[in-house]
Amino acid sequence: MPQAPTLIGKLAETVMGRRARVLGLDEPAPGFVEVDLRAEAPPGGWQPGHEIQVRATPTQGRRYTVRTVDAHDPEHVTVLATTQAGGPGTRWIRDLRAGAEFTVLTGRHRPPREHGTPRLYLGDGCTLGTIDAYAHTHAGTRDIVVIEVPSDALHLLPDRWPQHRFLPAGQAPGDALQSWLEHAAANGELAGVEGALLLGHAQSLQRQRRTLIDGGILPRRAITTKPYWATGKQGL
Ligand SMILES: Cc1cc2nc3c(=O)[nH]c(=O)nc-3n(C[C@H](O)[C@H](O)[C@H](O)COP(=O)(O)OP(=O)(O)OC[C@H]3O[C@@H](n4cnc5c(N)ncnc54)[C@H](O)[C@@H]3O)c2cc1C
Question: Among 83, 92, 126, which is best to mutate for testing ligand 1, by the most ligand atoms less than 8 A from CB?
Fold first, then answer.
Protein backbone atom coordinates (compact mmCIF):
# COMPACT_ATOMS: atom_id res chain seq x y z
CA MET A 1 0.00 0.00 0.00
CA PRO A 2 2.62 2.62 -0.99
CA GLN A 3 -0.06 5.15 -1.90
CA ALA A 4 -3.51 5.25 -0.32
CA PRO A 5 -6.16 7.86 0.48
CA THR A 6 -5.80 9.40 3.95
CA LEU A 7 -8.89 7.61 5.23
CA ILE A 8 -7.59 4.15 4.20
CA GLY A 9 -4.21 4.96 5.80
CA LYS A 10 -5.95 5.90 9.05
CA LEU A 11 -8.03 2.70 8.94
CA ALA A 12 -4.84 0.60 8.45
CA GLU A 13 -3.30 2.38 11.45
CA THR A 14 -6.32 1.50 13.60
CA VAL A 15 -6.16 -2.19 12.64
CA MET A 16 -2.39 -2.82 12.38
CA GLY A 17 -0.86 0.14 14.22
CA ARG A 18 1.67 -0.17 17.06
CA ARG A 19 2.91 2.89 18.95
CA ALA A 20 6.62 3.52 18.57
CA ARG A 21 9.04 6.02 20.14
CA VAL A 22 12.52 6.92 18.87
CA LEU A 23 15.13 6.22 21.55
CA GLY A 24 18.09 7.34 19.48
CA LEU A 25 19.57 7.76 16.01
CA ASP A 26 22.99 6.90 14.65
CA GLU A 27 24.77 7.31 11.30
CA PRO A 28 27.02 4.26 10.88
CA ALA A 29 28.17 5.59 7.48
CA PRO A 30 27.19 8.45 5.14
CA GLY A 31 23.72 7.73 3.74
CA PHE A 32 22.81 5.20 6.47
CA VAL A 33 20.59 5.95 9.49
CA GLU A 34 20.09 3.51 12.32
CA VAL A 35 16.87 4.11 14.25
CA ASP A 36 16.66 2.78 17.78
CA LEU A 37 13.00 2.27 18.74
CA ARG A 38 10.75 1.16 21.51
CA ALA A 39 7.65 -0.22 19.78
CA GLU A 40 4.63 -2.18 20.97
CA ALA A 41 5.06 -5.77 19.80
CA PRO A 42 2.70 -7.24 17.19
CA PRO A 43 1.12 -10.72 17.60
CA GLY A 44 3.93 -13.29 17.90
CA GLY A 45 6.40 -10.59 19.00
CA TRP A 46 9.09 -8.69 17.05
CA GLN A 47 11.53 -10.82 15.08
CA PRO A 48 14.73 -9.79 13.22
CA GLY A 49 13.61 -9.30 9.61
CA HIS A 50 10.09 -8.19 10.61
CA GLU A 51 8.61 -5.94 7.91
CA ILE A 52 7.05 -2.68 9.00
CA GLN A 53 5.33 0.16 7.21
CA VAL A 54 5.23 3.81 8.20
CA ARG A 55 3.02 6.60 6.88
CA ALA A 56 5.68 8.93 5.55
CA THR A 57 2.90 11.38 4.61
CA PRO A 58 -0.85 11.07 5.15
CA THR A 59 -1.12 9.35 1.73
CA GLN A 60 2.33 7.68 1.26
CA GLY A 61 3.35 4.47 3.08
CA ARG A 62 6.96 3.25 2.96
CA ARG A 63 8.33 -0.13 4.06
CA TYR A 64 11.31 -0.84 6.31
CA THR A 65 12.67 -3.85 8.22
CA VAL A 66 13.56 -4.58 11.82
CA ARG A 67 17.28 -5.47 11.96
CA THR A 68 17.67 -6.38 15.62
CA VAL A 69 15.43 -7.21 18.57
CA ASP A 70 16.94 -6.86 22.06
CA ALA A 71 17.03 -10.32 23.67
CA HIS A 72 16.35 -8.78 27.12
CA ASP A 73 13.80 -6.19 26.02
CA PRO A 74 11.51 -7.55 23.27
CA GLU A 75 10.00 -4.10 22.52
CA HIS A 76 13.41 -2.56 21.84
CA VAL A 77 14.19 -2.87 18.11
CA THR A 78 16.45 -1.23 15.53
CA VAL A 79 15.86 -0.39 11.87
CA LEU A 80 18.64 0.45 9.41
CA ALA A 81 17.60 2.82 6.60
CA THR A 82 19.40 4.37 3.64
CA THR A 83 18.79 7.88 2.40
CA GLN A 84 19.65 7.50 -1.31
CA ALA A 85 16.07 7.57 -2.59
CA GLY A 86 15.19 11.12 -1.56
CA GLY A 87 11.42 10.52 -1.60
CA PRO A 88 8.91 10.97 1.24
CA GLY A 89 10.22 7.90 3.11
CA THR A 90 13.77 9.26 3.12
CA ARG A 91 12.59 12.71 4.21
CA TRP A 92 10.58 11.08 7.01
CA ILE A 93 13.65 9.15 8.22
CA ARG A 94 15.90 12.23 8.03
CA ASP A 95 13.41 14.29 10.06
CA LEU A 96 13.17 11.75 12.92
CA ARG A 97 14.49 12.96 16.28
CA ALA A 98 14.98 11.19 19.62
CA GLY A 99 11.67 11.22 21.49
CA ALA A 100 9.52 11.35 18.33
CA GLU A 101 6.42 9.15 18.49
CA PHE A 102 4.69 7.57 15.52
CA THR A 103 2.66 4.55 14.47
CA VAL A 104 4.22 1.48 12.87
CA LEU A 105 2.00 -0.75 10.74
CA THR A 106 2.77 -4.44 10.94
CA GLY A 107 1.32 -7.87 11.58
CA ARG A 108 2.68 -11.28 12.49
CA HIS A 109 6.22 -11.90 11.13
CA ARG A 110 6.33 -13.81 7.84
CA PRO A 111 9.94 -14.83 7.09
CA PRO A 112 10.98 -15.29 3.46
CA ARG A 113 11.08 -18.80 1.98
CA GLU A 114 14.74 -19.88 2.21
CA HIS A 115 16.53 -22.97 0.92
CA GLY A 116 19.46 -25.05 2.16
CA THR A 117 22.71 -23.92 3.79
CA PRO A 118 25.03 -22.21 3.25
CA ARG A 119 23.24 -19.46 1.38
CA LEU A 120 24.17 -16.54 -0.81
CA TYR A 121 22.73 -13.12 0.15
CA LEU A 122 22.95 -10.27 -2.36
CA GLY A 123 21.56 -6.78 -1.97
CA ASP A 124 22.20 -3.05 -1.96
CA GLY A 125 22.48 -0.67 0.99
CA CYS A 126 18.75 -0.55 1.74
CA THR A 127 18.78 -4.34 2.27
CA LEU A 128 21.72 -4.41 4.70
CA GLY A 129 19.45 -4.45 7.77
CA THR A 130 17.35 -7.32 6.41
CA ILE A 131 20.30 -9.38 5.23
CA ASP A 132 22.09 -8.83 8.52
CA ALA A 133 18.95 -10.09 10.29
CA TYR A 134 18.85 -13.35 8.29
CA ALA A 135 22.39 -14.35 7.34
CA HIS A 136 24.36 -16.74 9.53
CA THR A 137 27.94 -15.61 9.30
CA HIS A 138 29.30 -16.40 12.75
CA ALA A 139 28.95 -20.03 13.76
CA GLY A 140 28.58 -23.33 11.90
CA THR A 141 27.13 -22.35 8.55
CA ARG A 142 28.97 -19.59 6.78
CA ASP A 143 26.64 -17.79 4.41
CA ILE A 144 28.10 -15.52 1.73
CA VAL A 145 26.88 -11.93 2.04
CA VAL A 146 27.71 -9.29 -0.59
CA ILE A 147 26.25 -5.78 -0.42
CA GLU A 148 26.63 -2.98 -2.96
CA VAL A 149 26.91 0.45 -1.31
CA PRO A 150 27.79 4.02 -2.30
CA SER A 151 31.58 4.39 -2.32
CA ASP A 152 31.61 7.05 0.43
CA ALA A 153 30.16 4.47 2.87
CA LEU A 154 32.69 1.80 1.94
CA HIS A 155 35.41 2.71 4.43
CA LEU A 156 33.08 2.64 7.47
CA LEU A 157 30.67 -0.27 6.97
CA PRO A 158 33.27 -3.09 7.17
CA ASP A 159 34.32 -1.89 10.65
CA ARG A 160 30.77 -2.32 11.89
CA TRP A 161 29.94 -5.47 9.87
CA PRO A 162 33.29 -7.23 9.23
CA GLN A 163 31.47 -10.49 8.43
CA HIS A 164 29.88 -9.00 5.28
CA ARG A 165 31.54 -8.08 2.01
CA PHE A 166 30.86 -4.56 0.67
CA LEU A 167 31.32 -3.47 -2.96
CA PRO A 168 31.45 0.12 -4.21
CA ALA A 169 28.41 0.81 -6.41
CA GLY A 170 29.16 1.36 -10.09
CA GLN A 171 27.49 3.60 -12.68
CA ALA A 172 24.11 1.87 -12.58
CA PRO A 173 22.35 0.05 -9.72
CA GLY A 174 23.37 -3.61 -9.56
CA ASP A 175 26.39 -3.34 -11.91
CA ALA A 176 28.97 -3.96 -9.16
CA LEU A 177 27.05 -6.94 -7.75
CA GLN A 178 26.54 -8.37 -11.23
CA SER A 179 30.21 -8.27 -12.07
CA TRP A 180 31.16 -9.79 -8.67
CA LEU A 181 28.56 -12.54 -9.22
CA GLU A 182 29.81 -13.41 -12.72
CA HIS A 183 33.40 -13.67 -11.44
CA ALA A 184 32.40 -15.69 -8.37
CA ALA A 185 30.35 -18.09 -10.52
CA ALA A 186 33.25 -18.57 -12.96
CA ASN A 187 35.87 -19.02 -10.17
CA GLY A 188 33.96 -21.68 -8.26
CA GLU A 189 33.48 -19.36 -5.25
CA LEU A 190 29.82 -20.33 -5.08
CA ALA A 191 30.39 -24.08 -5.03
CA GLY A 192 28.47 -25.59 -2.14
CA VAL A 193 25.93 -22.78 -1.90
CA GLU A 194 22.46 -24.34 -1.61
CA GLY A 195 20.16 -21.33 -1.68
CA ALA A 196 20.06 -17.60 -2.40
CA LEU A 197 18.14 -14.59 -1.13
CA LEU A 198 18.31 -11.68 -3.58
CA LEU A 199 16.94 -8.36 -2.32
CA GLY A 200 16.88 -4.76 -3.43
CA HIS A 201 16.71 -3.21 -6.92
CA ALA A 202 14.04 -5.05 -8.90
CA GLN A 203 15.76 -5.04 -12.29
CA SER A 204 19.08 -6.18 -10.77
CA LEU A 205 17.51 -9.16 -8.98
CA GLN A 206 16.28 -10.52 -12.29
CA ARG A 207 19.80 -10.37 -13.80
CA GLN A 208 21.29 -12.05 -10.71
CA ARG A 209 18.72 -14.84 -10.73
CA ARG A 210 19.33 -15.48 -14.44
CA THR A 211 23.11 -15.68 -13.86
CA LEU A 212 22.66 -18.21 -11.04
CA ILE A 213 20.25 -20.37 -13.05
CA ASP A 214 22.03 -20.17 -16.43
CA GLY A 215 25.40 -20.81 -14.76
CA GLY A 216 24.04 -24.01 -13.21
CA ILE A 217 24.81 -22.64 -9.72
CA LEU A 218 21.26 -22.99 -8.33
CA PRO A 219 17.87 -24.13 -9.59
CA ARG A 220 15.08 -21.52 -9.69
CA ARG A 221 13.32 -23.05 -6.66
CA ALA A 222 16.37 -22.44 -4.45
CA ILE A 223 16.37 -18.70 -5.19
CA THR A 224 14.14 -16.26 -3.34
CA THR A 225 13.84 -12.70 -4.62
CA LYS A 226 12.18 -9.67 -3.07
CA PRO A 227 12.26 -6.27 -4.77
CA TYR A 228 12.67 -3.33 -2.38
CA TRP A 229 12.63 -0.62 -5.04
CA ALA A 230 12.52 -0.25 -8.82
CA THR A 231 13.96 2.36 -11.16
CA GLY A 232 11.46 5.15 -11.68
CA LYS A 233 8.90 3.74 -9.23
CA GLN A 234 7.87 5.38 -5.97
CA GLY A 235 7.36 3.01 -3.05
CA LEU A 236 6.84 -0.74 -3.47
C1 LIG B 1 9.54 -5.22 2.25
C2 LIG B 1 10.49 -4.04 2.17
C3 LIG B 1 11.39 -3.81 3.20
C4 LIG B 1 12.28 -2.72 3.13
N5 LIG B 1 13.17 -2.51 4.14
C6 LIG B 1 14.03 -1.45 4.08
C7 LIG B 1 14.96 -1.19 5.13
O8 LIG B 1 15.00 -1.88 6.17
N9 LIG B 1 15.82 -0.13 4.99
C10 LIG B 1 15.79 0.69 3.88
O11 LIG B 1 16.59 1.63 3.80
N12 LIG B 1 14.91 0.46 2.88
C13 LIG B 1 14.04 -0.57 2.95
N14 LIG B 1 13.15 -0.80 1.94
C15 LIG B 1 13.25 0.07 0.75
C16 LIG B 1 12.47 1.39 0.91
O17 LIG B 1 11.13 1.13 1.25
C18 LIG B 1 12.54 2.11 -0.46
O19 LIG B 1 13.87 2.49 -0.73
C20 LIG B 1 11.61 3.31 -0.54
O21 LIG B 1 11.23 3.42 -1.89
C22 LIG B 1 12.20 4.62 -0.10
O23 LIG B 1 11.14 5.55 -0.12
P24 LIG B 1 11.29 7.06 -0.59
O25 LIG B 1 9.94 7.67 -0.33
O26 LIG B 1 12.49 7.73 0.01
O27 LIG B 1 11.54 6.98 -2.14
P28 LIG B 1 10.46 6.70 -3.28
O29 LIG B 1 9.47 7.83 -3.34
O30 LIG B 1 9.90 5.33 -3.14
O31 LIG B 1 11.37 6.74 -4.59
C32 LIG B 1 11.97 7.97 -5.06
C33 LIG B 1 13.00 7.63 -6.16
O34 LIG B 1 14.12 6.96 -5.56
C35 LIG B 1 14.32 5.68 -6.15
N36 LIG B 1 14.65 4.75 -5.03
C37 LIG B 1 13.78 4.16 -4.16
N38 LIG B 1 14.44 3.43 -3.25
C39 LIG B 1 15.76 3.54 -3.57
C40 LIG B 1 16.94 3.00 -2.98
N41 LIG B 1 16.90 2.21 -1.91
N42 LIG B 1 18.13 3.33 -3.55
C43 LIG B 1 18.20 4.15 -4.63
N44 LIG B 1 17.10 4.69 -5.22
C45 LIG B 1 15.90 4.38 -4.69
C46 LIG B 1 13.00 5.33 -6.85
O47 LIG B 1 13.22 4.52 -7.99
C48 LIG B 1 12.46 6.68 -7.24
O49 LIG B 1 13.03 7.11 -8.47
C50 LIG B 1 12.26 -1.85 1.99
C51 LIG B 1 11.33 -2.08 0.96
C52 LIG B 1 10.46 -3.17 1.04
C53 LIG B 1 9.50 -3.41 -0.10
Answer: 126
Architecture of the domain spanning 6-105: Beta Barrel (2.40)
Closest to 208 in 3D by CA, of 99, 121, 134, 130? 121
For residue 231, give the ligand 1 atom closest to its CA.
47
pLDDT tens digits, 200-225: 999 999 999 999 999 999 999 999 99
* Measured distance CA(222)–CA(194) in Å, rounded: 7
Angle at 119 between CA 155 and CA 192, to 5 degrees: 110
Q: Is the minimum distance from the CB of 234 to ligand 1 under 6 angstroms?
A: yes
List, by residue range, all CATH 2.40.30.10 domains of the chain.
6-105
Q: Going by CA atoms, what residue is nearest to atom 36 of ligand 1?
A: 85
pLDDT per residue as tens digits for the range 188-203: 999 999 999 999 999 9
Give the chain's length: 236
